[in-house]
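Lay summary. Proteins are chains of building blocks that fold into shapes, and those shapes determine what they do. In this project we predict the shape from the chain. Here is one chain we studied, written as its sequence of building blocks.
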Amino acid sequence: MKVQYLPTFIKDLKKLRKQPVYDQILPIYSMDNLTHTLQQATIKVLQDYRDFLGHDPESELHLVFDEKTHHYILLETGWHKNQRIYGNLIHLQIINGKIWIQQDGTEAGIAGELLDRGISHQQIVLAFKTLERRKITDFAVI
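And here is the predicted shape, written in a compact code that computers can read:
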């Protein structure tokens, strides 16, 4: 059997396994490749925010990445007039092929930056909102 075209997405993995081009198609659409794409967008967005916020002489910005469990955090530490500064500005996590926004301390919202990087609405979960509130957004619910 000669295959004349590759499908643009995998609908039925069982059927696909029987086709001769399975080994060529699966790597293109594997979860590892999807996770890598999401990971690269996530890291770039956090790096851009760190660079945008600049260098405050009283505090430091730290990028904390755990690529094994897919946690990506922008953290601020320091001192201001004898007051301790310690805060999680942004916390993103990749779960089951979606970027979960656990914490968003930005004014404009980090989701817009992810959309600008080509991440679709259905690949972004506003985890800091309740399930009921997520249902009335354009973003993924879970």
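What the prediction tells us: DSSP finds five helices and five strands in the chain.
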